[in-house]
Amino acid sequence: MALSLAISPCPNDTFVFHALVHGLVPGAPPVDVTYADVDVTNTAAERGAFDLVKVSYAALPWLLDDYHLLPCGGALGRGCGPLVLTRGDRPADSGQPASIASQPDGDPGQPAGFGRPDLSGATVAVPGDRTTAYLLFRLWAAERPPARIEVVPFHEIMPGVAAGRYDAGLVIHEARFTYPRHGLTALVDLGEWWEADTGLPIPLGAILARRGAVDPQAAAGWIRESVRQAWADPAASREYVLAHAQEMEPDVVDRHIGLYVNEFTADLGDAGFAAVQALLGRAADAGLVPQTSSSLATAWTS
């Protein structure tokens, strides 16, 4: 029987899973694939809708009783964190919305001389309420949370901020490369903030295997072989990746893959699991997510 797989249409996912989806991994079963944004798969996974599924690491506390966390295939790395964007340049005298003030310098996540933005009067658009991006944002803005949060489809966030519908927007993926085209400025790189504060990579997207439906060890082997084939022959997946790339230019696709497909894609390793523990532990301590057993969060075969 075919396994049901849900991944995003983003280039990193289609690049990584090309061989598995197309029956090129020896010993792997056929795969019935669904493409959906991660906020959709986070919700679907709660219903047990898929055998293998890409979700946000922030959603794990609600999912690990029913799913194994696999140590490969996801998105985790350095220099790839979410951005908080707004119109204009720097605060107050440079065109920032009046609802965004600047706090004194000193936050390790901010460039020298910039000051820490205060979003307490702002409306911020986010791509999903259980995304890792939003969880990082909540941890970063804990002392000065924004006045309003609106969950908005990812592709509507940058145009909405540019049009003034939102004071700021939280973005992920290829928006790191394209936001200047919308006349937007990065207020903060949450990845830089996280790395400066913890020394750990940023855990963004995880691959889960449904308990009782698929053997996690076998699934990890299939995915690692799919990753190996992707790296061995990048051209083989090119047509497939571009077909799902949502009109991204080829150079943006290449930069996207180069950033999000890295050594942690093949194996989380000690640093990757430490990052997962740190994110979920801090979030639980802050009351933002349920407490998660460390064995469930890190022992993928448990």
Portion in strands:
15-25%
The N- and C-terminal alpha carbons lie at a distance of 25 Å
Question: Which range best describes the helical content: under 10%, 10-25%, 25-40%, 40-55%, 55-70% or over 70%?
Answer: 25-40%
Low-confidence stretches: 89-98, 103-114
Broad structural category: alpha/beta
**Alpha plus pi helix count:** 12
Let me know the number of strands.
Answer: 13
Rg over CA atoms, rounded to whole Å, is 19 Å
Mean pLDDT across the residues is: 88
Order of helices and strands: EHEHEEEEEEEHEHEHEHEHHHHHH
- Described by the principal axes of the CA atoms, the overall outline is globular
Major beta-sheet overview:
6 strands, mixed
How would you describe the overall organization of this protein?
With 302 residues, this protein is α/β, with parallel strands linked by helices. The chain is built from twelve helices and 13 strands. Helix 1 (11-21) packs across helix 7 and helix 3 (132-140) crosses helix 6.
What's the short story on this structure?
The protein has helices at residues 11-21, 38-46, 132-140, 154-162, 175-178, 190-198, 216-232, 238-243, 250-260, 263-266, 269-285, 294-298, and strands at 3-7, 31-35, 52-56, 67-69, 75-77, 83-87, 101-103, 116-118, 123-126, 148-151, 168-171, 184-189, 202-210. With 302 residues, the protein is of the alpha/beta class.
Write a concise keyword list for the protein shown above.
6-stranded mixed β-sheet; 302 residues; alpha/beta; 13 strands; 5-stranded mixed β-sheet
Task: Give the topology, please.
Elements: E1 3-7, H1 11-21, E2 31-35, H2 38-46, E3 52-56, E4 67-69, E5 75-77, E6 83-87, E7 101-103, E8 116-118, E9 123-126, H3 132-140, E10 148-151, H4 154-162, E11 168-171, H5 175-178, E12 184-189, H6 190-198, E13 202-210, H7 216-232, H8 238-243, H9 250-260, H10 263-266, H11 269-285, H12 294-298
Parallel strand pairs: 1-2, 1-3, 9-10, 9-11
Antiparallel strand pairs: 3-13, 4-13, 5-13, 6-11, 6-12, 7-8
Helix pairs in contact: 1-7, 3-6
